[in-house]
Amino acid sequence: MLKEQLKNCKLQLLTSNQTLMKKITLLLFSLQFGYLAAQDKPSASSNDSTKVNQLQEIKIVGSRNSKRTVVNSAVPIDIIDVKSVTTQSGKLEINELLQYAAPSFNANKQSGSDGADHVDPATLRGMGPDQTLVLINGKRRHQSSLINLFGTRGRGNTGTDLNAIPASAIKRIEILRDGAAAQYGSDAIAGVINIVLNDNVDELTGTISYGAYSTKADGNFPAGTPNTGDNFLDTNADGNKLADGRSFDGNSIKVTTNYGTKIGDNGGFANFTAEYINKDKTLRPGFDFRRGFGEAAIEGFNFFVNAAIPVSDKAKFYAFGGRNFRNTDAYAFTRNNPSPRIVTDIYPNGFTPRITSLIVDNSISAGFRTKTAGGWNVDISNTFGKNSFHYFIKGTLNASLEEASPTEFDAGGHTLSQNTVNLDLSKNYDSILNGFNLAFGAEYRTEQFTIFAGEEGSYATYDVNGQPITDPLNQTIPTDPNTGDPRPGGSQGFPGYSPDNVVNRSRSNVSLYADGELDVSDNFMVSSALRFENYSDFGSTLNGKIAARLKTGGNVNFRGSISSGFRAPSLAQIYYNLRFTNFSSTGASEILLSPNNSPVTQAFGIGKLNEEKAINGSLGFTASYGDFTATIDGYMVNVKDRIVLTGYFDASALNIGVDQAQFFVNGVDTKTTGLDVVIAWKKKIGDNSFGATLVGNINNMKVDAVNNGTLDEQTFFGEREKAFLLASAPDNKFSLNLNYARKWFDAGLAFTRFSEVKLLDYQMYEDVADYGSFANQIKAATDTYGVKIVTDLTLGFNLSKNTKLIVGSNNLFNVYPDQQDDWVEAGGYWDAVQMGFGGAFYYARMNFRF
Fold first, then answer.
1. pLDDT score for 66
2. Which one, of 261, 335, 332, 272, lies nearest residue 306 by Cα?
3. Spatial distance between the Cα atoms of 198 and 208, rounded to a whole number of angstroms
4. Rounded-to-integer distance, Cα 811 and Cα 200, Å
5. CA 747 to CA 795: how far, in whole Å?
6. Fewer Cβ atoms within 10 Å of its own Cβ: the N or the C terminal residue of the chain?
């Protein structure tokens, strides 16, 4: 039904213009999570009216019309007041904030997934992490150089690291929940997240917060289970040493400050943000082969600047950017005796390697905006960003060096840089019907992806004389005296990048776009967009979009859109390569992740990567009755040739020193339909303010086709890989937020319901004959995570005009996912599902403002 509605929407989807909309209002809510969205009737309170007026003046993502606001947009846009979010919840990072504030946003903390333990994969409307475009102040943000592998959601995808942006630097976040590749280019299949930086002046604000997680995991764990009782791994020592039991871990300290100052007397400003975070590891019940199951430790520092300087009455220079530095530390899988991977003279009791990383993000954007005598708004800018991801493996060894092995290695890493030049022009014609806005522009973007090698000991295998093996027929590999097996080379936990892995690749693309918005009457607006892009490595695309809004009465508006879109394959997906050890419950195997341009890839019949192609449609309405407001938007996203990571193909016959190989491919076509719902009530009675908001998303993704050609489908992209893909698009998520405030006190209570998720575990790699049939094997391998409801509570106390104390808990009742067995991906008792596996988090925060 939804699909048919979306097919038939086209130009019949209409909208009202801004003249009438100024007489009505929008105020959904500013509740516990500070979530604001567009509606139609103002509240009676003066404070609420002020917020409404501010929203009505916002130039929003999804439109290049300077007069377009959230109120009269033809597509669904969420406006999240980050100041309210960060002062009224215990969430430490942007992904955590959006997970509970935006209907269809999902992010997962990972464990045992190498680099993904340090950068959380995040998705919108169940699409991949790289199918949502991120902007800062309307300018394209660079992506992370990390590509998600192993047991992560969004495996095979890159994405933008939202946690590299300090929450205290953000004024608001605009989430366009609609395909927008025809407006903004590659990656905007699921939508666009625009982060608007602070511009306040003459005000010093900041926070000091502290929190910790309860270690009392909910489950039935056998005696001696790692990270229960007095069997916790010692996080201050290596070699599987144990520490005393503990009641809390993941201790987190966060200190932020923000200050703005005026520049001149004509609206110039400079706003500065500094942020420090220090979060210890968490450890949760796992199995002997995964003693370090839990979340990574993070120590980070952020500095951001946002500035604008008028150079004339109609022109200004602007610049913004910052630097994010993070030192992260996560455990890999445990090495237990007896094993050729262990040198007992170094680690008598085995060891659990630590994958640490130095992650640096630098960005700077600068430009000029002006208005010509002819009424044209002109914006010329250049934006540069770079991500560097450098691995250092600690508490490890190179077993082939035996007793001479170091215990720390520089394993190399990868970088991604992006430079974007933009020219944007727009003009509003008031004389054409009720107003017509024309915009067009051009973009030139270059990207560079590199992999740099680590030190020799991180990747090499040595012979009995301590020399790197270059002639396997005439050199002897050391053997383990306990097992008699040859000792493997490279740093255990994460093998370093070798000179053979080194990559330095770049590309460029040129874009031209045009879009227009026409207010046909007071009740009807229609817009369209067209964008051409040419990439130096795969060719050209042309995409279009049409959207409309219709006002049918005083309280109801209908809106809709239909568009085509695309996402270019990332340089990492084309050129990333690595040789690694894959651990499962059945043992370890050597894997080659082969780049797309490799002869090995071609030998398996894998073709050249091409762009993903999408068709988007949406249809929705907004309504307002008294103190109640509501928005309901249905959507459809069909993606053809989605880029995914295959399963493991037998590569032993190639004699390249590995057991298996896997590849990036245009592997599947998917169809996604869904519904976003926001219903809010807000009331002020005397000095008492009440609020209630229901935010929800219903999502249904199906794998429509697997493009395996002549290759075995179950190996190419089998049931297990499909389950990982679908887990990125949970069936539904609903949050009920209740809010109360009176004078110096406020309180928030939130209930978030996470839907059932099903994953297939490592039993899918077993012999099907052991289960009697393939259907029985799938049944045995299915790990079902049932519906769970997580409760958050926050209490705020205004101690003075300048200070406020906040205490609260995320996951107040310490709810965990359903317990599983030892076949799971990450080696703990749970996978990385949407609700997380950290348990209850308790916190206190002091806010100050001067």
1. 59
2. 272
3. 19
4. 33
5. 5
6. N
Residue 766 tokens read as 């077993």
How far is 581 from 590, CA to CA, in rounded Å? Answer: 5
Token pair in block for residue 305: 């600047």
CA angle 422, 541, 384 (to 5 degrees): 30
Residue with structure tokens 């903004």?
A: 184
pLDDT of residue 375: 92
Structure tokens at 42: 């103002």
Q: Tell me the C-alpha to C-alpha distance, in Å, between residue 342 and each of 235, 347, 405, 410.
A: 20, 7, 11, 20
What does residue 666 show for φ and ψ, rounded to 5 degrees? -80, 75
Count helices and strands in the chain by DSSP H and E runs: 12, 38
Residue 822: both structure tokens together: 């030892």
Q: Is 422 exposed, middle or buried (0-12, 13-18, 19+ CB in 10 A)?
A: buried
CA-to-CA dists, residue 80 to 98, 102, 360, 592, 785, angstroms: 9, 8, 27, 43, 30
**What gap in Å lies between CA 558 and CA 71, rounded to an integer?**
12
Confidence at 16, pLDDT banded by 50, 70, 90: very low
Q: Given the structure tokens 């949050």, which residue do they identify?
A: 735
Helix (H) or strand (E) holding 2: helix 2-9
Close Cβ partners of 772 (under 8 Å, ≥ 6 residues apart): none
Burial of 471 (0-12, 13-18, 19+ CB in 10 A): exposed
Copy the structure tokens of residue 662: 């896997």
Q: Tell me the whole-structure pTM to 2 decimals.
A: 0.89
Would you state the structure tokens that stand for residue 508, as one six-digit string?
């460029």
Q: What is the pLDDT of the chain when averaged over all its residues?
A: 87
Find, among 85, 35, 75, the residue nearest to 55 by Cα: 35
For 254-288, what is each residue's pLDDT tens digit?
999 999 999 988 899 999 999 999 999 999 999 99
Interacting residues of 1 by C-beta distance below 8 A, sequence separation 6+: none
How many Cβ atoms from other residues are within 10 Å of residue 396's Cβ?
Answer: 30
Helix (H, G, I), strand (E, B) or coil at 647: coil
Q: What pLDDT is recorded for position 103? A: 78
Structure tokens at 722: 């499909």
Cα→Cα distances 247→64, 240, 250, Å: 53, 20, 11
pLDDT at 69: 55
Answer left, alpha or beta for residue 483, where phi above 0 means left and psi between -120 and 50 means alpha.
Answer: alpha
CB 826 within 8 A of CB 112: yes
Using the structure block, give the residue that is written with the tokens 């109360």. 740
Q: 584 pLDDT exceeds 70?
A: no
DSSP letter assigned to residue 554: S
